[in-house]
Amino acid sequence: DPRSFIQNSGNGSAAELESRAVVLESFRVRVVPPSYSGLSVEEVVGDAPVRALLGSEIEVELAATGKVERAALSFGGVTGQMRALGEGRYSGSFIAQASGAFEARLLADENAPAPIVRAVEVYADAPPEAHLTEPASDQLLRGLPASPVAVRWTARDDLGLAEVTLKYIKSRGEGDAAQFTNGVIPLGSVERGSVRDWRGGAALDLARLGMQPGDTLVYWLEARDRNPAANGTGRSATLAIAITAPEPVKLNLGDLGPNEIGRFLLSQRMIIIHTEKLHGERARLTREELNRRAQGIAAEQREFKNSFNDYIRIEGAGEEPQSANSTAPESLEEQAQAAAEERTEIHMHGIPEPPQGTPNNVRDMIYAIRAMWDAEDALSLMDTGKALTYEREALTRLKRAQLAVRYVPPIVARSKPIDLKRRYAGELNEIKTRLEKLSRRAETKESAALKGALSDAYAALSDLQATLDVPVTARASAVARARERARAGADKLPAAGGQHIATIAEAAGQLRVVETELANLELGGSSEEYAARVSKSLSLLTQAASNLFAIAEATTRATSGEANTLLPADDARAAEYFRQLNR
After folding, report:
1. Which CATH superfamily is domain 3-123 in?
2. Which of 387, 440, 458, 561 has its CA 20 to 30 A from that of 318?
3. 3-class SS at 418?
């Protein structure tokens, strides 16, 4: 509505005051959305707040009568002059990048009206929603299916979809030997109900994708909207198809290496993440929902714990034979007393105490399994707080076991028997230490570059693994350090040549991929979501570090004329010890 603003200044007649008054005749606001959105231009009437899509242009036009010098438009701390259109009309505009308030002001010598202020609410373009509707869950197959696996999906965006892609990662092997292959699966049919809603299907031909027993295929749907100025991509939850591998050779706990224990560490950490999430949400859950989710996590802990069954049996922890003097309780009173004693005694879960002299890694693994039993029991009673205590104890024990396996204890070298006939014969300067007898290879430019890159890869892996157990706010600095370490390692590798150039080039490429992945890594979200996003970088760093270590060990190994004496072939740990000494 037009507004009149008359201010009295000095003495004068009413006619003179009216002739100097500035009157706002009209005021109009138009919202022009970005062209990609497909939204129409909207005109805001009256005092209503202005609501605009991020990146929209807000046009302000006003007309006034009276002696007006100029008009100004301010928004977000920036003031600009409005363009004069003639006959008292002015026009200006600005780009809405954040919510706030704009101010349109008429400037005159006197009797200028009060400025016009309007609130501006800016909303962002939401990323698309993507869902895999079929299959409904992960699949574990005993072999390659005769026909492709059918996949159904849906995608939706608030403004409009531009592209939908079905992607996958195929993994083969475990630990340092794991290999990963990325790819895109063609979409068979796409039903475009509108620019905002799409649906369709695809076929996963596992044989064509080269799947073998033991392989795992993880796939997901990505939908991209039409916004060119932002990363408007939505991603569905991932699904996995695994083909069972042949039964592995059974080992005992003492034979578990760092890679196997590291795999157990990741599994136990995921169980902790699930329990922490449930513990934080339990206050607003119904008892039925709390029980359902707690039993689900208990099943995860039980399944993971059962993966140790073969190790425990072969470890030699058989059942204690029943004493010849022991007798079963006969009366009801005796049976009740026996049941009460069983409930109150220390719960060993059928796992005996490690015998005297048991290696530290085996002892910690046994205590970790006991803690998993206790965590499962607590979850079955919906006591998430106590379950977390036991789960974290199990994780700590697994970490100790891994460190104990990595540590190589000093081994006393075997010496030849003393020849009494030569005792006290010879000169003192002929005596040499064992290290002096070992011939060393001179440090070269290539080996220095290789060792430097290996050190950077280990440091990057350590920094990145540390982010799995820290709050969201602490992830950024550790990820930045890991990215810088990966970049530094990749920069050093071109100087490391030699007969292993192909493996070195592959490691350099893996470090470059890690650098790129970490630069685009989304740091927010829950621990479970973050762990899934960072898993690829962790796997690539592990593989690169493993390959570089193997090359460094092969190229820096010492030789000696008395190798059979100093490095006995029947003691592999002693050989490893002396190789470490020569570094």
Report:
1. Immunoglobulins (2.60.40.10)
2. 387
3. coil
